[in-house]
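Hi support team,

I've been running sequence recovery on a batch of backbones for a student project. Most finish fine, but this one hangs at about 90% for roughly twenty minutes before it completes. I'm not sure whether the input is malformed or the queue is just slow. I've pasted the structure tokens below so you can try to reproduce it. Let me know if you need the job ID as well.

Thanks,
M.K.
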């Protein structure tokens, strides 16, 4: 049960646009990735990459405590490429805070013992049934290594929660029914879906993609019609998976994906955005850059200012006060929203 004080602090943050409590921090421990996905440019980062040193995190843990951080999501890049990830996790758990690891799955088997020891759950990227996943990831045996990694975690702790997230795009939209079957076959506890982001400068893009890159992964008008038909078939054929929430999205929320692609093609408005990420979370990148979410511009850098000062600077507060997520061009096209109610538990 959430304490009245924490509820009050969250409500005060939403009302005043000053961060009184920060439930979620998304932390990028390592800048590189071990996949070569067609819809992402993170892997194009420099060969040596960057990583957050444990001693640098120590400087910020007290700030995390003061801000009431309850949940740290390890994103990236691939966090498991960090040379001493478990020292980072040890500090986070001592706060204490929940840890969720986002992973390609390629290194899960090798790190299974530590993952189960230090993380509360794992979210893996699943882009299709075996052949389709491998084609998108452009890594030999990517699907097989992912399956082996999930099996290793479950062998240590059968109750350890491992869920999947699938980015729908041109190369896998027709595979949607098989993706749900694949999620079952490798032992995932849940699978969720979102459309590919083609409109932002996130994910190591120096600037938004041009038309050629967009058309390589986004759906054409005819493909949108086909996806809408597939979605309706999936809703009918996998009714039990929706009712059990093995498929995280409700039928109506899954229907938003073809709606989104239709809007990209000029076929109406984008689905309505409901998000309060800048009020309840922040993203800290490997180089210390602080953002309100993956997609908006930086507030500052934790190597230059304390996190609290960055989050509550006049510029940051003015950004939140002036942000209308239903009208902002970045928010309207966002594929990955967060809506955390004041009374929600983490």
């Amino acid at each position: 049960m959430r304490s009245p004080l924490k509820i009050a602090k969250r409500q005060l943050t939403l009302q005043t646009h000053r961060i009184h409590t920060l439930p979620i921090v998304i932390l990028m421990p390592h800048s590189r990735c071990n996949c070569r996905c067609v819809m992402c440019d993170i892997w194009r980062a420099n060969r040596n990459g960057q990583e957050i040193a444990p001693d640098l995190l120590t400087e910020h843990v007290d700030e995390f405590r003061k801000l009431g951080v309850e949940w740290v999501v390890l994103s990236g890049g691939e966090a498991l490429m960090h040379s001493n990830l478990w020292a980072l996790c040890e500090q986070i758990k001592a706060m204490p805070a929940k840890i969720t690891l986002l992973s390609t799955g390629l290194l899960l088997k090798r790190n299974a013992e530590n993952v189960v020891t230090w993380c509360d759950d794992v979210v893996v990227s699943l882009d299709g049934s075996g052949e389709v996943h491998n084609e998108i990831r452009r890594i030999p045996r990517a699907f097989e290594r992912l399956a082996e990694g999930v099996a290793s975690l479950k062998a240590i702790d059968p109750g350890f929660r491992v869920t999947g997230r699938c980015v729908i795009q041109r190369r896998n939209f027709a595979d949607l029914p098989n993706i749900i079957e694949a999620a079952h076959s490798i032992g995932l506890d849940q699978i969720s879906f979102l459309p590919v982001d083609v409109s932002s400068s996130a994910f190591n893009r120096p600037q938004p993609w041009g038309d050629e890159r967009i058309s390589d992964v986004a759906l054409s008008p005819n493909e949108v019609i086909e996806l809408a038909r597939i979605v309706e078939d999936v809703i009918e054929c996998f009714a039990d998976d929706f009712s059990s929430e093995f498929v995280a999205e409700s039928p109506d929320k899954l229907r938003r994906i073809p709606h989104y692609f239709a809007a990209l093609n000029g076929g109406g408005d984008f689905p309505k955005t409901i998000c309060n990420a800048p009020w309840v979370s922040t993203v800290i990148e490997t180089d210390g850059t602080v953002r309100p979410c993956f997609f908006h511009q930086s507030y500052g850098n934790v190597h230059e200012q304390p996190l609290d000062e960055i989050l509550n600077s006049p510029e940051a507060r003015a950004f939140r006060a002036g942000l209308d997520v239903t009208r902002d061009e970045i928010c309207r096209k966002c594929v990955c929203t967060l809506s955390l109610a004041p009374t929600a538990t983490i």
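--
Follow-up from support: It reproduced on our side and the slowdown came from queue contention, not your input. The mean pLDDT is 91. No action needed from you.
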